[in-house]
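Protein 1 of 2
SEQ + STRUCT:
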Amino acid sequence: MTFVRARRRRRAIAAGIAAAAIAAMTITIAAQRGGGPPAPVRDNGVRPIVTGEAFIGGIVVTDESTPRPLRLASVTLRDPDRGVQRVSVTDERGTFGFSRLPAGHYLISVNRPPYVSVTYGARTARGQGLTIALENGQRLDAIRIAMPHGAAITGRIVDERGAPVSSPRVNLAVVEAIVIGPTSSYRRVYGQTIEPDDRGIYRIYGLPAGTYLIGATPGLSLLTRGASPRVPTDDEIRWATRTATTGPRVMAGPPPVGSATALAELFYPGVTDIASATPVTLAAGEERAGVDIAVRAVPVATIRGVVRTPDGAPARGAQVLAAPSTDRALADVLPSLPPLGLSAADGSFVIGDLAPGHYRLMSRASSAAGGAPVPARGSSPPGSDLWALADVDVAGADIDGVTLTLAPGMTVSGRVVFDATSLPPPEPATVRLTLSPPPSGGPALGAPATQAEADDTFAFKGIAPGRYVLIGNAGTTATVQPLWMVKTAMLNGRDVLDTPFDVTPNLDVSDLVVTFTDRVTKLTGLVSDQTGHPVPAYSVIAFSTDPASWHQQSRRVRMPVRPASDGRFAISGLPPGEYYLAVLPDFPPNEWSTPAFLQTVVPGAVRVTIRDGETTTQDVRLAG
């Protein structure tokens, strides 16, 4: 299952973009091509650790009118180009330092509860930090990082009668919202499973100033699912009362028992509709009390059934997942454990505590050992070669007799090709391919990632029917400047790299040819003001001029990047084509790839053409 989406504050994004209108832009295109045949020795993706004579140091203080040094703050220095990071701890004076650094680009982040985690140069608590462009032998020893004290929210979790809810664990989520055009989206910025005390009191701390929605959902474990209490009916109460006064021999047998109940997923102050939740606005360092969440019980049901192998035998140890197939905003932002069952020796399974709704039962198992799951190759998640799907409507009553008959999964296979001009082909072990369901495809059975074999072939086995998107990388993946990029993924004469392809029952997919190239494109430039001075305070976004490519998993929409301290930016790995390039004063972290947001950026953007294997330089000069 893939969960996407979140929630955020309301901002006037379009107005901010208009303020960053581009007055003049110049384009210089310089081609960089490699030459000669590929070397016979493969690249294993390992990069040596490089040292130098540069230094970065500074001090961490509190963000107060009278700043105080912060000791024991964890300072992380990261070099994204080389995939290396170093960690230091501030001393009694709040100072830190990193020596023997080579020239490069560095990011600094600081963490120390209960203060808000900070990235150096970020305009907001969760914004992009400023990359420090460090020259060889340069010494920067006056870095100053101020950490604001985190705000806190506390309150009680109570039931419909106002009694504290203290025994079950509760998942709490802090959610931000943002509105772009006619739609709203949600982003979880904090999530933790807690157990309120005997008064039902909870506390969340370390939050930056902002406006939030507070959500709660029961924190059930696999051991407690199916153990929800049942609410007695009026007939049960009358029967029990009369039995106590007249004796059990006078009355008939007991009536049917009432439905089981469980806590519903809710937002403060106790609503299921996320759009009706009451926002909580916090100032920096504020302690807000009285944020009480009134939870209520809803009728839940249990599904019982059996999993069978393709020949009808019981499937032992098969996993069965009950995934809500409706579009629920709560499932996107509240951290909850998906209902999961495991079939017994006779193939039977039980999944309890299912709230009313439509579910898709998804089962995975292996044909080995009577259906028991087996580990997939390498570090991939547990995989299998058998699958089963069934749709079930739950309305508060238990459902018995569901049969899931496993079927053999399909194989998606092919080979990788390396279009090399200057680099040796990477080792097969560094070639990683993934099949992922599209973001809007609903609940689906996942597929473990796979690696290329020594002969450059690959195979995904046991793939369930559905739509999939291919994602691939090769060589070292620890840096932001890739050495290889996927060029094409050809299937039956069609490039499926940018569009999902279908896997249908009983039909394998073969001859999928994935081509990697070392002709990695690069878009660079300088963001400056009218006087030519660098302006690193903005972000730069590049996205295709074709609106059909404006979606989350598109290779042709790149997340906005922050220029370094010298005003220079670099975006690598964009496929050849025509793009919009724009400068943003701010952008919504969860909406930058959506058509609604990108359409607001187009009026202030410039077109730029990126060609295969070339470096394109686009300098941006801002007006005002």
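Protein 2 of 2
SEQ + STRUCT:
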Amino acid sequence: MVSCERTSVLTRPIQRVVLGIMLGLGMLLVAASPASAHANLVRTVPSQGQHFAAGSGPRTVSVTFNEEVHATDRSLVVYDGTGKAVSKSSVHGSAFIATVRVSVPSLAEGTYVSVWRILSDDGHDERGAFTFTVGTASAVANINALVGQGGLGTVGTDLAWLARLVGYLAALVLVGGLLATTWWFPGVAARPGVLRLLRVAAAASALAALATIYFEAASIGGSLASGFSGDALSTVLSARFGLGPLVRGALSLGALVLLWRRPPGGAHGRRLVVGAGAFGLVLLATYPWAGHGWGGRWPVLGTVADFVHLGALALWIGGLGVLAVTLRGSGDADAASSAVQRFSPLALGAVAAVAFSGVLQSLRQVGSLDALVHTSTGRLVLIKVLVVLAIVIVAAASRSAVTRLRASDDPDHTRSLSEVRRSVLIEVILAVVVLGLTSTIASSAPAYEQQSAKRAAQATVQRSSAQAGGLRFTVALQPGLVGANTMAISVTRQDPSRFLPATLSGTLRCPGTKPATLRVSPLPDGRWVSAVRFPSTQACRLELLAGDGTSSTRATLSLSVR
């Protein structure tokens, strides 16, 4: 906050908060160490890329995790080269198990893709794939398409994220707003706008909790329609990630009933708010218990840090919401100044608690400097830190405006009061941004899980393309890992006067190895296929020579695997 003293940009309390955030971030960067895995894949049978002699393929395929996960009969499926499922699951209905196993018949020669998809105990949808070969390798079904089957889709995923965001915002406004109307801004609950804010927050929190349960059930069932399935809903409500929203919805509905019967205010109102506040404290506790707080290393510390984080956010955001509604309808400069002055120390302490508890959670969930920088969740943590710093600066401007408001010689204080309202509005907008980031981080796999997944041998499709001589060459590599790969090449015409190739040959040049001449064979669907081996993750150069009987075309592509 801008000080009245010209020798300092920020007052000392704000300087301490900024310094604390920066020191916490530095501690995160320096002290981060590898975290224990949480719902990580430990072993696959067969192992990635394992080769079996013809007629001696495996009769069972399995995936093992470091803890029990939610599995169904669709959690592990083995597909042949055409994308046809050839496995039979041993899971009937749903179960919480550490090893998911399927049986397969006597397998013909070819390359097979095993796709797994499970829900961890905190409700995260995790999936991956691995390949193995029996006898002679063959073209592989589209791994990316197979792994992507059975999800909520882009629309469903976005709606699930929106439900979480609305739930976070509503719960924080409800809990913090109830406390604000009793302790810091007595009498404002009688204003229709404030009471309407609390009632809307309670209703939105209850509806968002129900929506969260629905989307978890839909994720289990594999489609939006299956969110209403009795079996899927029963499974969700038997797990932490379902019980948490259920309790939260019931508490929010109870708070709504209490608020509707009697608005907070007066002696009886204070007792009512204390009871509703107790509801709110339990409500906030459902988030760490059903989410990241209870998972990973240091679960007790994680739960406490998560609860403190959410509690501080509630005090700050809920109070900020009530303050914004109060200022909007206030023309009394003295009353506005008094309200902001009362709220300012609370907001300062809440932001400091948010920063400190956020650092503790980051130490648990990020795990390493590499994960902080090179994973999507780690980068979101960094962005959240920057937004919190921005909020501190905006809060400084708000307090400076209040100081000018109290000292202004302008009798109606119009300009200074307008500055206070604008600063609070900006702070509210940044608070919503923080909640959006928090919702995204909470719904994403922890950074150390993402980093571990990068190191694990998970099959995928790596693509590259190039244009030459009026033709476009597109290469798809599977499984996209060091070692043996199947390379499918598609050739399309960019120039209508060109002919598609009748012959195709290739040479692969990788650093530190001799050039390899590839045997490229045509497929019935017009593609070309070749077996290729990558010695490392270093980029290799693929040189293709296409002939149509009258002319030839050379194309060069850069290929790399994980």
